[in-house]
Amino acid sequence: MLIRVKSTLKKTVAVFFVTVIIVSGLFGIQVDAYDAYVYSRSGEFQKSLPLYIPETVIDLSVDPASKLSGAEDLAISPDGKMYIADTGNNRILVFDENYQFVRSISKFVNTKKEKDAFNAPCGIYVDSNLQLYIADTENSRIVVLDEKDQLVKVIGAPTGTGITDNFIYKPISVTVDVGGRVYAVSRSSNMGVLSFSSEGIFEGFLGVQSVTFSAIDLFWRTFMTQAQRESSVQNIPADYNDIEMDADGFLFVTSSALDKTKQYNALVSGSTASDYAPVKRLNPSGDDILQRNGFYPPAGDIEIDTALKIDDAVSAFSGVSVNATGMYSVFDVTNQRIFTYSREGNLLCVFGGQGTEKGHFISASALAYKERELVVLDKKGGTVTVFSPSPYGTLIEDALSLQKQRKYDLALQKWQQALPLNANLDIIYADMGKACLRNKDYDTAMEYFELVGKREDYSKAFAEKRNQYVGWLLVLVPAAVVILSLISSRFLRKVKIANKADDVNPPAKIGLKKQLQYAFYPIFHPFDGFYMIKRHNRGGVAGACVIILAASVAYLISNYLSGYLFSVDMASNNSLIFDVVSFLYPFLLFGVANYCVTSLFNGEGNFRHIFLTIGYAMLPIALILPLATIIANLLSLEESIIVSGLVGIAYVWSVLLIFFGTISIHNYSFTKNIVATLITLLGMVIITFLLLLFASLTQKLWGFIYNVITELSYRL
Question: Angle formed by the axes of helices 442-451 and 455-467, to 10°?
């Protein structure tokens, strides 16, 4: 009932958005389809309420003193001031908590008591002591100033282990932990994050990504000199382009220099690996610990413009900022959009876009959280846009904050308030399910998890609910096993006796009952059993057809009645007929191909014998899959090996029966049957190819005929 209500609510919200768009069109109101959106479980674009609203746009070109030139970074100090690395003007701009220009820093007195200047500073950070860390890029150093703009220290190029003679040190982003350690990323370096002590001593690299070479690259590298190998590595684009420390002391880094094809493939496949992840969260050891629990990993847009080159279509993350709740926003320079994710990696909202409208950007270069506000720097537009959380965004952030504080009941209340505002956001259902799980409301939790396809979480709730009945299960399950064993053993004993009686006095006519009765003999005695089917007509086509039908029904039952955890995805659009055909196709195709092959190999069996062999060999599938289905409804995902084991036994058993059966009906040796089977498999591939080719040609022919008929109808 709950699922129906939620589905209805989703449809209602969708209708509401469509109505808004239609009415807006009628009255001439321009609605940008990409103002705010999310992606569904199936990867489809869905309109969303915005998390943030562009409240203020600050045009820094109004005052000549604050006019920007290629500004690359901004930072918010603990006391609310804003600092901008005005890269093209070789200076740092300082603004008060109300975003009013205060001063610029272009020079300082160095350790030699001489005036010194910045050269294209690209990164900036302000620590808890209000010390300013400036990535002075083209001067190959990090300059640290106090709040009075006095020099504290200079962190120069790293030296020591891991630093080669041709290492290029061009720091472009910097951050500092609570202990004063300095972390930086350098342009033209693929070595990862540089780590310095509080005194500025180089300590090593973190999060070094392995370089993947193609087979051709590896071939040519065998002929390279050592200097050429180092040069080739050095020419690889930088792994990371931005870095930020979160409230828990972990490093967030972004990369836009990844192979875009591999990045996009990892995204659409839902990969949780970090090999081609454009955003990572590094622990002190440099390991990526970013949670990727959403339907898709944090990697940008799923729907891309296929008319563009892959490098021009796939998202490229170039900036990241994290707030106190663990929410983080990353900037996509490809489409000038901001992607906001929860701590667990669920997509909360996408907003922004290319343009000059309020809330859009010409070429943004940095973003930073100021408490709940999100501040975005547009280096080409020469503006700073301040986004404030919307009422909907406030609810989402409050819920995430309460979850982080382990106040789950209060978090659930916030999720319930947010749900009517945006029923398309699946994270609401997922987190409401988690809240219900923690409150031991397992039934409701399972309904929420099933609604959004969270099978692992559903499994946890199911296991907890099952534990409530563990006492009964300890009694009922063994009893069911004993009863089933007694029934099956008694049944098989009767069948064995009946088959022996038929061996002594063969019946004049083998009806369907006798055909099915005999089917239990060859599955345990394949050589004798299939030989008797061939020589003494102990089987029949009707019996084989009934077994094939039973196996098909068992397959459908296994797919659709194995419980939510083990059944097929109900969101698929496959029909029952399609499922049956896909199940029977390899078996029947094997029969056709084997008949063709054995005609060349002098096999004694005809097509009827092959069909009977395949039909009777499918009996284990018909018997075991329903049992596996029943058991699947009692197990969690952690116990899936039991279900997969039973299903595996059923299919392996049937395949072995087909193999041994073909030996008997064709009178082959073991070796000869292996060769014939391999050629049969090759024949299956060829037949499948010919069928696909025929289907393609038929489709084209029908298209041609249709076009001709259409053209004639127009002319006549």
Answer: 160
Residue entry with tokens 């919307």? 390
Retrieve residue 166's tokens.
């041709």
CA distance 617 to 526: 9
Picking from 60, 123, 618, 614, the residue whose alpha carbon sits closest to that of residue 365 is 123
How many Cβ atoms from other residues are within 10 Å of residue 326's Cβ? Answer: 20
Q: Is the pLDDT of residue 369 over 50?
A: yes
Please give the torsion angle defined by the CA atoms of residues 466, 469, 471 and 477, in that order, rounded to the nearest 10 degrees: -70
pTM over 0.85: no
What is the H or E stretch that residue 154 is in?
Answer: strand 151-155
The helix or strand, by DSSP H or E, that contains position 119, with its residue range, turns out to be: none
What b/e readout covers 38-68, taking b as 16+ CB neighbours within 10 angstroms?
A: bbbeeeeebbbbbbbbbeebbebeeeeebeb
Query: In a 10 Å sphere around its CB, with 0-12 CB exposed, 13-18 middle and 19+ buried, how is residue 521 labelled?
Result: buried
Please report which residue ranges of 188-315 form alpha helices under DSSP H: 215-221, 226-234, 260-268, 310-313
Beta-carbon neighbour count of residue 467 at 10 Å? 11
Q: What is the pLDDT of residues 137-166, one digit of tens each?
A: 999 999 999 999 999 999 999 988 778 878
Tokens 């939620």 found at: 6
> Tens digit of pLDDT for each residue in 562-571?
888 888 764 4
Angle at 129 between CA 127 and CA 134, to 5 degrees: 45
Strand 171-176 relative to strand 151-155, pairing:
unpaired
Give the torsion sign (CA, 398, 402, 403, 407): negative
CATH number for the region 52-209+233-389 comes to: 2.120.10.30
Token pair recorded at residue 46:
């869905």
Would you list the DSSP string of 630-647? Answer: HHHTT--GGGHHHHHHHH
User: Which strand ranges, in their side-by-side order, compose the sheet holding 347-352?
Assistant: 45-47, 36-39, 347-352, 337-341, 328-332, 317-322
Q: What angle is formed at CA 547 by the lines to CA 546 and CA 549, rounded to 5 degrees? A: 65
Tokens of 330: 């990353």
Three-state SS at 334: coil
Q: What is the mean pLDDT of the chain?
A: 85
Distances (CA, A) of 132 to 8, 87, 152, 454: 53, 16, 9, 44
Q: Which residues of 430-441 are buried (b: 16+ CB within 10 A; e: fewer)?
A: bbbbbbbbeeeb
